[in-house]
Amino acid sequence: MTIISPSILSLDFSQLNSQMDAVNASRAQWLHYDVMDGHFVPNLTFGPDILKAFRKLTDRQLDVHLMISDPRKYAPVFAQAGAQWITFHYEAMNDAQDCRALAKELRALGVKPGISIKPQTPVSVLEALWQDFDLVLVMSVEPGFGGQQFDPSALDKITVLRQWAQAAGADLRIEVDGGINAETGKLCREAGADVLVAGSYIFKNNIVEAVDSLC
Ligand code: DX5
Ligand code: ZN
Where, by residue number, does substrate bind (predicted)? Predict the structure, then answer.
């Protein structure tokens, strides 16, 4: 079954309560929370206190996507703030050993760790790493902004990851983020993704119907 994770980056914060009521009435099982630091990506978003507020607004699993240069410093802070899933970027880390150490630290805090790659990063960098994670997030746009066009190179990466997971008999969540709508979402599901993030497609349409069209 496909998990839908609406990205609050595109939520209309002047309509916060009504939009969250719609998310809570929808079949979305997760809520995607984009953290940007103005350094790893050229945009700024939300910190841990706002995550605590969302914890009160929904019982969906909080899916935190850290687009920050120093995930080792801040990932534990988001764990304390109520995240169930925390994904950091491969490109923000020094090496594979650092990635594994942070995954282990997050597990010890009761959080499921995820690792993400940007569109320019080959999936091969994850071959010796993915088994240390519960989730791999394939970016299908350059991280930083909502409303961009889907990059189809993500599909091959999803296919490879699903093959690795199936061959190992592993229960890996494969998430895709960027430019997801009913058409691109279907392509991703067919390639083997089981978590679809969508921001503008969900929040700029009827929220319940848009989620249904992605399931
Ligand atoms: C982009 C963020 C995405 C963003 C996706 O860097 O990671 O989660 O909200 O937005 P859409 O679905 O509009 O491409
Ligand atoms: Zn994201």
Answer: 7, 65, 144-147, 177-179, 199-200
